[in-house]
From TrEMBL:
Record bears the keyword rRNA processing: no
Involved pathway(s): Cofactor biosynthesis; riboflavin biosynthesis; riboflavin from 2-hydroxy-3-oxobutyl phosphate and 5-amino-6-(D-ribitylamino)uracil: step 2/2
InterPro entries for this protein: ATP_synth_asu-like_sf (IPR023366), Lumazine-bd (IPR001783), Lumazine-bd_dom (IPR026017), Riboflavin_synthase-like_b-brl (IPR017938)
Coiled coil residues, start to end: none
The protein's name: Riboflavin synthase
Keyword DNA repair: no
EC number(s) per entry: 2.5.1.9
Function per UniProt: Catalyzes the dismutation of two molecules of 6,7-dimethyl-8-ribityllumazine, resulting in the formation of riboflavin and 5-amino-6-(D-ribitylamino)uracil.
Pfam family membership, one: Lum_binding
Lumazine-binding repeats: 1-96, 97-193
Known catalytic reactions: 2 6,7-dimethyl-8-(1-D-ribityl)lumazine + H(+) = 5-amino-6-(D-ribitylamino)uracil + riboflavin
Length: 212
């Protein structure tokens, strides 16, 4: 489980393309400190498992499903990536609950700089708009952000200087892909309300059965 608070801007140092997967080697002195085989590290918002760890670099295998559902397949040696270790129990939840399970890939549509921040417009793929609300949370390339405006097929976010300087969102240009993960709470609420609506008249929900 992550919070969407990026710890460092890392770098891809090597990519090995396999038959149905890819193996990435990434550099990140902060996230590799104390890392061991089997640990999780979020890379541009995608939860990956550490296969090997050597100094300030680690390798991770990315299966075809992940390559198809995220923008990781576009990474090449030299690409910058957002890195975050899982949150520890008892730590402050600085962003929001992030699973590291990308829902889809959006596209940067526009950037509007101002003196102290920048407004970025991102496309919303089909099926995701219902989970995105004004002032709600969304994860973009692993960064927990607040939605400024929610449209039918887009949303906007406001980026402060720190986010621009310390994450990939500072260098993404119109046309570039970004990984999107919507608030998981919204998806659970939709599923529960759907089940309630489909239940036969007079049928008790699981919560009601427990209360009895």
């Amino acid at each position: 489980m992550f919070t969407g608070i990026v710890e460092e801007l890392g770098e891809v140092t090597a990519v090995e393309n396999l038959d149905d997967a890819s193996r990435f080697r990434l550099r990140g002195p902060v996230v590799t400190e104390g890392a061991k085989h089997g640990d999780s590290i979020a890379v541009n918002g995608v939860c990956l498992t550490v296969v090997e760890h050597d100094g300030d670099e680690f390798t991770a295998d990315v299966m075809a499903e992940t390559l198809d559902r995220s923008s990781l397949g576009a990474l090449v040696p030299g690409s910058k990536v957002n890195l975050e270790r899982p949150t520890a129990v008892g730590d402050r939840l600085g962003g929001h609950i992030v699973q590291g399970h990308v829902d889809s890939v959006g596209t940067v549509l526009d950037r509007k700089p101002s003196e102290n921040w920048e407004i970025v417009k991102v496309s919303l793929p089909d099926g995701l708009a219902r989970y995105v609300v004004e002032k709600g949370s969304i994860t973009v390339d692993g960064v927990s952000l607040t939605v400024v405006d929610a449209g039918p097929d887009y949303f906007t976010i406001s980026l402060i200087p720190t986010t621009l300087a310390l994450t990939t969102l500072g260098i993404k240009q119109p046309g570039d892909p970004v990984n999107l993960e919507v608030d998981v709470i919204a998806k659970y609420v939709e599923r529960l309300l759907g089940a309630r609506a489909e239940a036969p008249a007079g049928a008790a929900t699981a919560a009601e059965e427990v209360r009895r």
